[in-house]
Structures are given as structure tokens and as C-alpha cells.
Design brief:
The protein is of the alpha+beta class and 77 residues long. The protein is built from 3 helices and 2 strands, in the order H-H-E-E-H. A hairpin with a 2-residue loop joins strand 1 and strand 2.
């Protein structure tokens, strides 16, 4: 069974890794347990975990945020 890092999962889903970390921190998705691999703490995601995040993304994620453009007021003469 193939396992993916958090950064790889974010790339697969087309979201930023900051967004994925925020969803984990806010409790919106359940992340796999942190494991120690070669002295480094990582989360190893399975295909089942990725599908769960994909389901949340499709129901709640609208895309990148940022400032919205204001509508221009039309001048009346």
C-alpha cells in the first residue's frame, strides 16, 4: 500500500499545504497519526485518508480566497 506525505496529498488535491494543515488544526478533517520515520515526525496518508479529505474538499472548499474585486460604480451625468 502506497503512503503519501502531507505535502504530496495537498499537491494531489490541488490545495496548498497550508490549507491542509489548517483543516487538520481546526479539526475539520481527521489526519493520520504522526509517525517517526528516520528521526523525522511525519504523517503518512493512505488512499482511504486521501478520499476522506477529497470528500471534505468537494463539499466545503471554494478555491483560493483573497480580496474580492469591488464593483465599479457607474457615473451618471
Amino acid at each position: 500500500m502506497k503512503r503519501y506525505s502531507t505535502v504530496q496529498v495537498a499537491e494531489l488535491l490541488g490545495i496548498g499545504n497550508d490549507t491542509l494543515h489548517r483543516w487538520i488544526h481546526e479539526g475539520k478533517i481527521e489526519a493520520p497519526e504522526i509517525q517517526l520515520v528516520g528521526g523525522v515526525k511525519v504523517r503518512l496518508w493512505t488512499d482511504v485518508d486521501i478520499e476522506r479529505v477529497k470528500k471534505y474538499k468537494n463539499s466545503s472548499f471554494w478555491g483560493k480566497g483573497g480580496r474580492r474585486k469591488r464593483k465599479r460604480k457607474t457615473r451618471t451625468k
